[in-house]
Amino acid sequence: MNQVEVKGTPVSVKKLVKWLWVAFFSFIGLSAVLFCFIAWGWIGYMPDVEELENPKYKFASEVLSADGKTLGTWSLNKENRVYVGYKDISPYLVKALIATEDVRFEDHSGIDIRALARAVIKRGLFFQKNAGGGSTLTQQLSKQLYSPGAGNILERLFQKPIEWVIAVKLERYYTKDEILTMYFNKYDFGNNAVGIKTASYTYFAKEPADLTIEEAATLVGMCQNSSMYNPVRRREQTEQRRNVVLDQMRKAGFISEEERDSLMDIPLKLNFHRVDHKEGLATYFREYLRIMMTAKKPNRSDYASWQYQKFYEDSLSWEQNPLYGWCNKNKKKDGTNYNIYTDGLKIYTTIDSRMQQYAEEAVDEHLGHFLQPLFFKEKKGRSTAPYTNQLTKEQVKEIMMRSMRQSERYNTMKQAGYSESEILKAFKTPEQMSVFTWKGVKDTVMTPLDSIRYYKYFLRTGFMSMDPMTGAVKAYVGGPNYAFFQYDMALTGRRQVGSTIKPFLYALAMENGFTPCDVTRNVEQTLITGAGVPWSPKNASRARYGEMVTLKWGLANSNNWISAYLMSRLNASSLVRLIHRFGVRNRNIVASPALCLGPCDISVGEMVSAYTAFVNNGLRCDPMLVTRIEDSEGNVIAKFHPQMEEVISAQSAAKMLVMLKAVINEGTGGRVRRYTRADVGGKTGTTQRNSDGWFIGFTPSLVSGCWVGGEDRDIHFDTMVYGQGASMALPVWGIFMKKVFADKSLGYSESEAFNLGNQSICGNDSTLVGNDTGGLDSIFSE
């Protein structure tokens, strides 16, 4: 009888074979039981059918411009994932992924037996590291969806069978295209680029459908390990990995050998854009919109005692603006509120990305390259800089100490228990920091206290442009740079408006029977306030002193005496009420004679909205920021429409239009003609000591406004040459409009003229017919 010796014990071949079969079938049986227990959820975690059919993704919401460009996203931490459908994924991506990760993807049902056996034999028995993995794309997807990070190898081994079962179930519920789509949407490509749409933009500034073969190969190569193959930090390794993917595509027959060789010779080129809410286009707009959409219903107890104005505005917005608090006003099918950070919404805004770019360029060109250098030059060597020389060194020191105590650093140290002397010492200790300059971020060494003073040197701005017929906001700039100056001066901040308030006064006069042709003598005026105190405004010019002048001339030249004259014939309380009807929500406006010179605080957005009434036959448009919202499946869940209110009559609006055109053609807004010959109306404004420079200008199709000033009111030019609104704010408007008119794709034309209709301007003997604006201007010439 044949015998064989095993471990020193003679065993018959027949008995050995028997035990081997027993062991084999036992293994099969135990495996079957194990997989059944896993499938039934008795061992490990097994998602139920509903969760398998609807995996729990957290998709970032996408903010889109009116012309279809992505302005930015809102997400939680690293879940900056924007959904993209299979049809919008480049076929190069699909081929590269299949060739590299799962060449038999189309043939298996979740588990590739051949690949698994190869991995077990070569890796498990022969310890070959280059044997390739046995995981299919579906298994990798199940790992991404449902496997937490393993703490050790043993824990990872227990996860594998669970992933196999989930992979088989995923193949049952989804098509191959859907599995690929989920994979591309789920994978984290590093640098806060989660999902293929965000990754395509981050690394190549493209949509996934527009990627070239070598770009697709680069991103697919990163799927092995996005940290190791990070093209920003490890370009050489990433390029080598890209070439491996290209070779795999050649092996799979997706590209030829010649194509592979030529593509390998192309150097890796990135167009890197880190996804950051502080960067990109319309940063101030996006932040304002985010705060608005996520606002909660105002509760007075949540506001400080001095925040009544804020509570009042928020309460009005909650009741009147459907976009304000939208997330907390609307619910999903499951009864929960919408979440802009995880629900993958698409918010279609009214912003035009081209016009937004032109607005930001206009601010950069005028403030950064012209006005700011002049401001630095004026303040150079002054002990009170950047403040006016009308302050003392002691006053400036007091302001700086107050600013220090309002800083985040101070509050953090105070809460940590540091004494005042320790905090002051820290603020006076030099340290390395990166600071803003108009030429880019600069690394330097300065004390934190000096950095506070440094940033106060920079002039701030607010700019907004909107369609007067629909209220659609086309461009929105809240400051010089959101990363460094986060206070929004477009719709959040308010400053004194100066002479830009005068059109409201003149509109009240037109509503009370006055006409642009009415005359009065151009002399000093003295009015008595409600407290019985005489008030006599000063005038910047004595031109035509003592002569009879028209109201049209008075507004065109921003004459304070003519404004005071009108104020003496009208009621200050009536002016306050009209200002509120124009859309201004500041409840602290004082009804006094001085109101005609604009001492009250109003935002740029409110002023731009108010001026739409002069273009739109007396109808004022609220700013409209969003046109519609879609859910992650493309269903329209909200639509927004223009909100209008009649402020003044069409006849009064026509009269105001004539006078505001004269501001440009004959008065203080003449610098507009350096930029355009279009039919334009508008008004300049400058407050006391040049603290604020304003210009609101409009064409038949666009109303835009700009404010420029310092962070504090005592930071300003000390001379009128550059401190007036025509010098500080008007050029931003002019540069913007010049760029808009030059871009023919936008559809705005310099030849477009105002249509005043058949409105009586100066009585029955002076009626404008049709578009004959030229004849009307000649009637009113002085």
UniProtKB/TrEMBL annotation:
Keywords: Carboxypeptidase, Cell membrane, Cell shape, Cell wall biogenesis/degradation, Glycosyltransferase, Hydrolase, Membrane, Multifunctional enzyme, Peptidoglycan synthesis, Protease, Transferase, Transmembrane, Transmembrane helix
Location, primary (coarse class): membrane
Biochemical pathway: Cell wall biogenesis; peptidoglycan biosynthesis
Annotated catalysed reactions: [GlcNAc-(1->4)-Mur2Ac(oyl-L-Ala-gamma-D-Glu-L-Lys-D-Ala-D-Ala)](n)-di-trans,octa-cis-undecaprenyl diphosphate + beta-D-GlcNAc-(1->4)-Mur2Ac(oyl-L-Ala-gamma-D-Glu-L-Lys-D-Ala-D-Ala)-di-trans,octa-cis-undecaprenyl diphosphate = [GlcNAc-(1->4)-Mur2Ac(oyl-L-Ala-gamma-D-Glu-L-Lys-D-Ala-D-Ala)](n+1)-di-trans,octa-cis-undecaprenyl diphosphate + di-trans,octa-cis-undecaprenyl diphosphate + H(+); Preferential cleavage: (Ac)2-L-Lys-D-Ala-|-D-Ala. Also transpeptidation of peptidyl-alanyl moieties that are N-acyl substituents of D-alanine
Pfam family, one: Transgly
Family: In the N-terminal section; belongs to the glycosyltransferase 51 family. In the C-terminal section; belongs to the transpeptidase family.
PANTHER family, alphabetized: BINDING PROTEIN TRANSPEPTIDASE, PUTATIVE-RELATED, PENICILLIN-BINDING PROTEIN 1B
Name of the protein in its database record: Penicillin-binding protein 1A
Organism encoding this protein: Bacteroides sedimenti
